[in-house]
């Protein structure tokens, strides 16, 4: 076996573990410049006024250059007393910060500055709410490190893309928070290197506790889990107990979530450029989705969202409810971050109203004018993203408690929200709605014996649409594992079986280091344990039947130093919960394979959500199959002599694609789940002219000349998409190479789907379009083109299925007779 080392020149020979230290392929010349400068200034003590500014949301990282930002991060650790308290070697902290800096990508939003902003907001919150006192230093250390690492190596495309595009990350993490798992994995890979291991002076138990905490915090930043976490947090707020570990865990998750989405708590001149960067990233993703024929994420589609509309929805439905819940527990934060957010919402509502009025009047003018030509859209900013206007000093109304205090009235207050938007209407769905739906898996953060009613406070979300797997697991006893794994397994089976090679290896160890490859698998399991909360110590009595064994615990704090000993769970903290894995409507909605789509389009009548009549015209005299058919017709398919039961093939493929006929309502459903015939995969299954209050950062930029430099450029160079920077390029698959992308190959140049491909082929050999007179069923029967085309479709499909082979094992589908 050839082991290829991709080591840092700098680190070579310094460490024994790992052999391949955290690696950055695209190490840029600027990185070493930044490091050089950072090392020049890192011993400087910042003036008090800068330290004070660092504690405010008004702090603008773009006032500083990269080396200064790293220095500012170091300052946070020092000011919080974490270096002294935990004996963190300063050189190690510096090395680690620099490596973290290097492992953020130059994408518009999820870049190193974003990580700094999140960390800085956490720092501001920590200071304002005195979290050191209430949570202790160790928890604060976990929070700060989590913030710094929470988006490491973010490719600029979110989980929705990862999952829909079936990237390597999605495959590796089974669609369960693929990005967050990746960020977390990178974080701990960095810490594996002794020179970067800021926790090197902790004992094993404390390290394990920190690791668990960081994993929990970073995984909590997946917006697919927003409602779940918020609902649980709101339940504990009235009875919050700082000595209750599960309460503290929830608080930490909410804190990092708040920091992560806190841009709108900043003054407009700081917040708005961030929003522009975010929209830039969103629009790039939706453009990629369009060009790749993937489902287009609605809140990222510039054809569907406006800047104020996006913010009205995000702030009103996602951000503010979270902030307000935290404010209930930590009232010190109301002035710091909640009121500014209310002001921002007010601002965007007004702007949105102004835009709506403007559009309406433009539309009316266009209708009334004979020459037309008026564009209904408002002028855009130079960036093409926004209408520039200023937030005003808040009116009395906005400074007081506004309508956002009444969540139930909120939807009505959100002027641009059409009725039903909260139910996840594709055009008005929030990021949380779409993320939940896309991720499919729901994981409870706490314990499987929680009352299901505990989620009832959650606003309408996909949780309500999908039956919780809590009850499924607990009621089905030993069937639990089969149910959960079966569900996950079948889902991925379908994908991998006919999927494209778009996935790019993100695992730098997959070819060069077998140990790491197996670590990768363990990582998934380990993450799952944490994710499902099996890691928390529990007694036998804690085990709820059907919830699986307690894994024994990552944490064992029995020997932890008294001072550092974290507060452990008081009650029984149990078990992993996958809730609501099966729903999400019909399977077609999630499948984007060409064949799947052709099937869907052939059979699904979008006008009434029913199967087309013709598509279910199935001969009744074939008694060997057809048990999945609805609305059986009569006669048999004899058009091209494919007597090799297309019905059986149909049954086969519906199962392969995880959908089936439901006799009663003639719709597809996704309940049917089968495992892949691929043994390899199976084995691996696993307006306003407004101005915001002038809270402004009055930093005298006198620390270094470079501090005077403002960098207004959007960092929008090369995007790494799903590629990890730590993957040797030669390990990457080319999506256009080899067999190519099956999905792409079925698309026209304009990206439209070749919905009628099979039909077209068959029509070549059949009678001319219009009417077919066929001689089955005794008397000649007149059938419509659509009916015959459908029959023809299945015949063709049957033939084609014979040629499908798994990309992994090259195994073909079994003969229908063997299905
Ligand atoms: N529309 C909108 N989305 C935001 C805003 N701030 C954060 N988000 C989203 O919330 C997500 C939180 O997790 P990520 O950082 O991965 O990506 C973030 C964005 O997609 C905002 O101001 N407006
Ligand atoms: Zn983030």
TrEMBL record:
Keyword terms of this UniProt record: cGMP, Hydrolase, Metal-binding
Binding positions (Zn(2+) 1): 114, 150-151, 260
Keyword ATP-binding in annotation: no
Main enzyme class: hydrolase
UniProt-listed Enzyme Commission number(s): 3.1.4.-
Comp. bias (Polar residues): 378-402
Binding of AMP, residues: 110-114, 151, 260, 311
Catalytic site: 110
The record's free-text note on cofactor binding: Binds 2 divalent metal cations per subunit. Site 1 may preferentially bind zinc ions, while site 2 has a preference for magnesium and/or manganese ions.
Pfam family, one: PDEase_I
Chain ranges of the PDEase domain: 34-355
One annotated GO molecular function: 3',5'-cyclic-GMP phosphodiesterase activity
Protein name: Phosphodiesterase
Species in which this protein is naturally found: Hermetia illucens
Organism taxonomic ancestry: Eukaryota, Metazoa, Ecdysozoa, Arthropoda, Hexapoda
